[in-house]
Amino acid sequence: MIALLMGAGLGLSFAMVGTPLFIRLLVNKGYGQFIRDDGPTSHHTKRGTPTMGGAIVVGSVVFAYLITHLVLWLLDSRSTGPTVSGWLLLFLMVGMGLVGFLDDFIKISKQRSLGLNAKAKLILQATVGILFAVLALAFPDERGLTPATTKISFARDIPGLDLAFLGLTAGVILFIIWSNLIITAATNGVNLTDGLDGLAAGASVMVFGAYTLIGIWQGNQSCGSPGLVTSHVCYDVRDPLDLALLAVIIFGALIGFLWWNTSPAKIFMGDTGSLAIGGAVAGFAILSRTEILLAIIGGLFVMITLSVIIQVGYFKISGGKRVFKMAPLQHHFELKGWAEVTVVVRFWILCGLMVAVGLGAFYAEWVVQL
């Protein structure tokens, strides 16, 4: 518990203090957001607002994680330090953040709303995702547990649903495809949600709060825990408490960033932040064996992504007609006359409800197993 409090405090402090310093640096360099002309007219006043704020979130998470483990080691030399699962999640988060950084930098330097072309972005994201997937099936611990598994999971691995049903090699290939679908869905979901001041950051705070609780529960009910009474419903998850530590650090860092990102935003997270956060969300789902459950916990991201799919699909099928005034969904309500803050707070409420339902489903699955 001390480690969780320390990590959350460090993540929050680094982001809270570092963000205004980063804003000053970006302003001096003239790195401001480019606003689409076809978006809501109220957004035109945001042109020039510093972006790439996600770099501070990512940096705060990395430093807080390493410093927390250093302090734990200084207090107790028997401390094991960062785990394989922790390093993997940081790799996915930082890797996706770097892809987003390149995208943001091109937008700023070229003064346009499009950064990396679709092919280059897809290749870079796939490279990071494939490396993560391959490494996640390696590095077994003393119990033979690897950070990820080829089994499909809801609140734990589902018996009988194994991607390796055609053999280990086929299973690895299918797992790489499956995990990259999750990563792509999560990164796109957070990226599409990041359109209003504080919306994506505030929603992500709730999602990482949920994964903090899941990690703590899985750690307390781990199959490797000595003296566990309910061993038949324990969790075969590698390094759950370290995943909980990382989740609470990201939780704290996002709160610190949200202080400056809330309306009127002094800085935007940009693709640097949205891709990094989306990568982390996907990483938690894969490493904590809650892949399908993510669709509930991250329900707001799913809803907003579906609005874009519906809009684009219906536009093509109907020959130019639209379901929404504008997609993603948050802009539809803006064009209906809702104030930006109203849209953000109501979407936060929806996100909170979905996170609560997801946590309820997670706990209910455990109860049913008793």
Give the helix/strand layout.
Layout: H1 2-29, H2 54-75, H3 84-110, H4 118-136, E1 151-153, E2 157-162, H5 168-193, H6 199-220, H7 240-261, H8 270-287, H9 294-297, H10 299-318, H11 329-335, H12 340-369
Antiparallel strand pairs: 1-2
How many DSSP-defined strands?
A: 2
Large-scale geometry: globular
Number of domains: 1
Number of helices: 12
Order of helix and strand elements from N to C terminus: HHHHEEHHHHHHHH
Radius of gyration over all CA atoms, rounded? 20 Å
Determine the fraction of residues in helical runs and give it as a percent range. 55-70%
Main pleated sheet = 2 strands, antiparallel
- Strand line-up across the major sheet: 1-2
Strand content: under 5%
Mean pLDDT, all residues: 91
- Overall SS class: mainly alpha
Task: Characterize the structure shown.
With 370 residues, the chain is mainly α. The protein has one domain. It has helices spanning 2-29, 54-75, 84-110, 118-136, 168-193, 199-220, 240-261, 270-287, 294-297, 299-318, 329-335, 340-369, and strands at 151-153, 157-162. Strands 1-2 form a two-stranded antiparallel ribbon. A hairpin with a 3-residue loop joins strand 1 and strand 2.
